[in-house]
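Bench log. Compound arrived from synthesis this morning; before running ITC I wanted a structural hypothesis for how zinc ion sits in the protein. Inputs:
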Amino acid sequence: MLASGESLGNLIARRGKFPLVNAIAPLTSKARMLYRLQIALVFLAPVLLLVALYALGDALGVRAPLLGRNYVVRVALPEPGAMVGLPPILGPEDPTRPLVVIDAGHGGHDPGASGAGIREKTLALALARALRDRLLQDGGVRIAMTRDDDTFLVLEERAEIARRLGADLFLSIHADSAGEQAGISGASVYTLSARASSDAAARFAARENSADTINGIPLEGRDEAVNAILVELAQRRAQVQSDEFAGLIVREGEGALDFHPQARRSAALVVLKAPDVPSALFEAGFISNPEDAGRLASPEGQARFAEAMARAIRIYFARQAR
Ligand code: ZN
């Protein structure tokens, strides 16, 4: 075994332990040189031949192998910064009004959790729509939905929609399942963990493709260190705001929604990683619990959720406007 950092010289000096190197030992140093040269030539010959064919091939009329050069695949990529199918913004046409992006979890081929004939993707969409309708009815807030039908979106796409629209708040709606443990119930609110948050900021700042903007400031053509600081500051601010929003959901939901004993949680969730959009993920309850499932699937339960969540969103925006 090669001890790490050991030079080849040291290795040869210790050759007593190495039978292969030992085999060359009886040779004179000149013979050893020749021997090594021969070995090197055996390995280099095919490479040299190929190089020669490429260099002289045309002149000699010999075709060098193409090495797959005839398999060029061209893929049309969207223009940087363009995004296919951004959802419409609903509500007042006044762009100074705050914009909340509501994200119904899962969708399409990804049903999420399921149980008792209920699928998370369907439940999440129903809750998202109830919240949208409630916010539209109350007025004053602009709303966009990452999906308003049964389509599949990757996690990064969801946060990216919020960023591209310049959202002021992002809420992802999910429901949980505890499998056979039907006794587990209650809603919880997730924010990005501090560790994941600073990791995400670092990764975002390091991303090669910086056709990006952070809080509307373009990162392109700027000093890397400056960009890293801008992203870090934006992420910290978004983190504080996310925590404030999550706290308001629990406060305003008290009495109206059933919370899990540990209602406030943090985790490294990809969907919450937009560095400049305050974000929270609401796990509405457990599909595996009959009471939770019944409440979440019923129009009354959905209306109760929408009312409490709309109140939390409204108070959050009122505080930010101060
Ligand atoms: Zn989910």
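What the model suggests: The chain has two domains: 8-60, 99-321. The two ends are 66 Å apart (CA to CA).
ITC booked for Thursday regardless.
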